[in-house]
Specification:
It is a single chain. The protein is built from six helices and seven strands; from the N terminus they run E-H-E-H-E-E-H-E-H-E-H-E-H. Helix 1 (17-32) packs parallel to helix 2 (45-56). By secondary structure, it is α/β, with parallel strands linked by helices. The longest helix has 16 residues, at 17-32. The protein has a seven-stranded parallel β-sheet with strand order 4-3-2-1-5-6-7, with helices on both faces. The protein has one domain: Rossmann fold, CATH 3.40.50.450.
Length: 182
């Protein structure tokens, strides 16, 4: 079982209430299984939802937030630890180093940046951490179609599906992590 999981997600809630519901479920499960949340350090949007869920259920949440985003993402003041760093590059590296695996929830450009960097590092064998994309309500269907097209066109090394696990529900993630435990 993982001791810490980085969760990359939006600083906004999005339009579908299922996005926040899945973040709540994931946070509750992480707390119940003594898995530390490593995340972007914000108290708003999806970041706030998962951090609050972890904390309200007795878990541990560690945030990493760049100085520039401290006000925008409203740095979370009631989590276990909050690290303020100089920039996004330091944030991502620190989060990757602190986690055993990563889960990507719905989000915008920043979330996509984090997703692509972590799967690129995985492809380059900079790390071999499990990376899971939670495709809540088909949020990432278009992106997945593009990855498949990129594969077909010969732009991706190896099979991207071996580097990025795609799951549609938190329960599928829980089952996968339970399998990893055995």
């Amino acid at each position: 079982m993982y001791k810490s999981i980085a969760v990359f997600c939006g600083s906004r809630l999005g339009n579908n209430p299922l996005f926040a519901e899945h973040a709540l479920e994931l946070g509750k499960w992480m707390a119940a299984n003594d898995i530390t949340l490593i995340y972007g350090g914000g108290s708003v949007g999806m970041m706030g939802v998962i951090a609050d869920s972890v904390m309200q259920n007795g878990g541990k949440a560690i945030g990493v937030i760049p100085e520039l985003l401290f006000k925008w993402e409203v740095g979370h003041q009631t989590i276990t630890e909050l690290h303020t760093v100089s920039d996004m590059h330091v944030r991502k590296r620190m989060m990757y180093e602190m986690c055993d695996a990563a889960i990507i929830l719905p989000g915008g450009n920043g979330t996509l940046d984090e997703l692509f960097e972590i799967i690129t590092w995985n492809s380059l064998e900079i790390h071999s951490k499990k990376v899971i994309l939670l495709n809540t309500a088909g949020y990432y269907n278009h992106l997945l179609a593009h990855l498949e097209y990129s594969q077909e066109q010969g732009f991706l090394h190896g099979n991207w599906k071996k580097k990025l696990m795609v799951m549609d529900t938190p329960e599928a993630i829980f089952a996968s992590c339970e399998t990893d435990r055995n």
